[in-house]
Amino acid sequence: MQTRAIVTGANGMLADALIPLLEKKGYLLYKTDIVSQDDILKVDITDKALLQDFFKTHNADIVFHLAAETDVDKCELNPTHAYNTNTAGTENLAVICKERGMQMVYISTGAVFDGAKETGYTEEDMPKPLTVYGKSKLEGEKIVSSLLDRYYIVRAGWMIGGYLRDKKFVWKIIQLIKTSKEIKVVIDKVGSPTFTKDFAKGVLNIVKSGEFGLYHCVNHGICTRFDIAKKILEYMNTNDVILKPVTSEEFPLPAPRGKFEALINKRLSTMGLDNMRTWQDALKEYIEEIKNET
Fold first, then answer.
1. 246 in Cβ contact with 187 (< 8 Å)
2. Three-state SS across 58-102?
3. Full-model pTM
4. Residue 242 parent element (H or E)
5. Would you say residue 167 has pLDDT above 70?
6. Where are the domains of the chain?
7. Which residues contact 188 (CB under 8 A, 6 or more apart)?
């Protein structure tokens, strides 16, 4: 029997990788986003009545909840928006999933940790977010795990992918390379890059396992932002741009960043399901994809 799935945030960079995989696996998809586009239906997850009506007319077995406000500084400057989207919106979906007996996949983040640890965080470490973004996502986790029995919470690291939908660090560096001879990049923040295509495969493997609960799913290896920028230059065969390592003080931002945001896929490894590549291999593939598109 064909599995029916609702995907929120279907216009986002993660959905760009996950939706084709779901279609390939034979899922019947109802794609939703705050902005309608092509076959993506406009659904606001913060509107509980609208959501309930949507679920009545689009009966599904599982929800892949990708919709979120992921702009960390925007969340810090507008906490109400952050909590409405990341916490209340998630609660609306979780309540409906409980009422209708549906499974839920909730995408979360390494930003639920404070960055004080000096080795990778595992699923067993206690969250202590520094930012409004991290706090709003953690509250979403708590709601999902308290309301539902059949859920998957999957935390990602520094997300890479999506090409034109990518508004994050890798894309910004690529744009700077086109116009700058010198690029300043912070060297005092450490994390785990997470390629959307690898993460999407990891999420599907987790769902296929049927083992509910909390997971970390990142590419292997730990690095600084500077390390990533250095590899981007290498993979783009760019020799005429100078990278200048700087501290975070050079880029004052509204939201504090934890010094160490790296994750370890401990549960996936224990289950024999940790098929993630190194971040270098993943980044190289992404850069090659971008080269072919431009």
1. yes
2. CCCCEEEECCCCCCHHHHHHCHHHHHHHHHHHHHHHHHHHHHHCC
3. 0.96
4. strand 242-246
5. yes
6. 4-166+192-220+262-276
7. 224, 247, 248, 259
Contact in structure between 99 and 91 (CB atoms under 8 Å): no
Tell me which amino acid residue 3 is.
Answer: T
Give the three-state DSSP class for 251.
coil
38: left (phi over 0), alpha (psi -120 to 50) or beta: left
| 252 pLDDT above the threshold of 90 | no
Tokens encoding 67: 């919709």
DSSP letter at 101 equals T
In angstroms, the CA 86 to CA 140 distance is 6
The share of the chain scoring above pLDDT 70, in percent, equals 99
Q: What is the DSSP letter of 127?
A: P
Tokens representing 160 are 């890479």
DSSP state of 125: S
Contact, 129 vs 176, CB < 8 A?
A: no
* Model confidence pLDDT, tens digit, residues 209-221: 999 999 999 999 9
Q: Which CATH superfamily is domain 4-166+192-220+262-276 in?
A: NAD(P)-binding Rossmann-like Domain (3.40.50.720)
